[in-house]
């Protein structure tokens, strides 16, 4: 195809400026190409080349595809399109959660700001904190650093708060798991870390099949499950 197009179409340099020009020029006539453009942008970013420098373009013969980033983008689009009635905010900054003690910041450094992949907001209230990890936690153990990260998100809320890891799986038997964060002396539960499987076959079915009213209801229900857990959306749809 490239050889056939070459006599009539000149090659272009693929970089930030190119992507921005295409996005600015896009209209409803080329709306069908948006998913392809999104994938192209993800592939470009995954080469490890910074998109902040417009003069830079990939020079590697291949690329290292960041599946964590791709899975996060997939979940983001699904939640934004299907979680009706709520606001989904990507890479939400948990401001004021961490702060240097006054008079004990000799280098005058900015306080660290944890940033989960998503928060779900109802009105002005954060009701769910979500992080995506491209690791099948049904088949593989939970790494310590993932647990510690989600524990911090869960503890950022009032007592009884929670934070969930959304992870991909192909196993239809995969179910939600929960880890309590307890007071080490009194053993009272203070927060919960949730391991929530996202069935890729279910997502594929929503994407591949033509839209119907039933499919839209199932998609909304699955988005509610992704955000809030098994007690919500999955009670209203058939498991895959």
How many beta-strand segments? 6
The CA-CA distance between the termini, in Å, is 38 Å
Which word captures the global form?
globular
Residue share in β-strands: 15-25%
- Helix and strand sequence: HHHHEEEHEEEHH
Spatial order of the strands forming the largest sheet: 1-2-3-4-6-5
Main pleated-sheet profile: 6 strands, mixed
Q: How many separate domains? A: 2
Radius of gyration using CA atoms only:
21 Å
Describe the protein.
- This protein has 240 residues and is of the alpha/beta class.
- The protein folds into two domains: 12-65, no CATH class; 67-236, no CATH class.
- Helices cover 33% and strands 18% of the residues.
- It contains seven helices and six strands.
- It has helices at residues 2-5, 16-25, 34-45, 67-82, 144-155, 200-208, 213-228; strands at 87-90, 118-122, 125-132, 161-169, 177-182, 189-199.
- It has a six-stranded mixed beta sheet with strand order 1-2-3-4-6-5.
- A hairpin with a 2-residue loop joins strand 2 (118-122) and strand 3.
- The longest helix has 16 residues, at 67-82.
- The model is unreliable at 48-63 and 235-240 (pLDDT under 50).
Supply the key terms.
240 residues; 33% helix; disordered C terminus; alpha/beta; 7 helices; 2 domains; six-stranded mixed beta sheet
Helix/strand layout:
Layout: H1 2-5, H2 16-25, H3 34-45, H4 67-82, E1 87-90, E2 118-122, E3 125-132, H5 144-155, E4 161-169, E5 177-182, E6 189-199, H6 200-208, H7 213-228
Q: In a nutshell, what does this entry contain?
A:
By secondary structure, the protein is α/β, with parallel strands linked by helices. It has 7 helices and 6 strands; from the N terminus they run ααααβββαβββαα.
């Amino acid at each position: 195809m490239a050889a056939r197009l070459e006599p009539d179409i000149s090659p272009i340099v693929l970089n930030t400026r190119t992507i921005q020009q295409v996005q600015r020029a896009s209209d409803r006539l080329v709306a069908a190409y948006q998913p392809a453009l999104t994938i192209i942008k993800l592939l470009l970013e995954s080469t490890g080349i910074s998109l902040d420098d417009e003069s830079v373009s990939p020079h590697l013969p291949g690329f290292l595809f960041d599946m964590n980033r791709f899975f996060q983008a997939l979940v983001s689009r699904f939640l934004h399109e299907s979680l009706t009635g709520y606001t989904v905010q990507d890479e939400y900054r948990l401001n004021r959660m961490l702060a240097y003690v006054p008079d004990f910041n000799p280098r005058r450094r900015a306080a660290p700001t944890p940033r989960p992949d998503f928060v779900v907001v109802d009105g002005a209230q954060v009701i769910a904190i979500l992080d995506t990890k491209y690791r099948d936690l049904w088949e593989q153990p939970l790494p310590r650093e993932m647990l510690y990260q989600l524990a911090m998100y869960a503890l950022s809320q009032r007592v009884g708060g929670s934070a969930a890891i959304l992870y991909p799986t192909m196993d239809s038997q995969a179910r939600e798991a929960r880890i309590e964060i307890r007071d080490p002396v009194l053993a009272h539960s203070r927060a919960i870390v949730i391991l929530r499987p996202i069935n890729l076959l279910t997502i594929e079915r929503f994407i591949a099949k033509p839209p119907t009213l039933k499919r839209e209801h199932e998609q909304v229900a699955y988005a509610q499950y992704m955000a809030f857990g098994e007690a919500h959306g999955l009670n209203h749809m058939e498991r895959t």
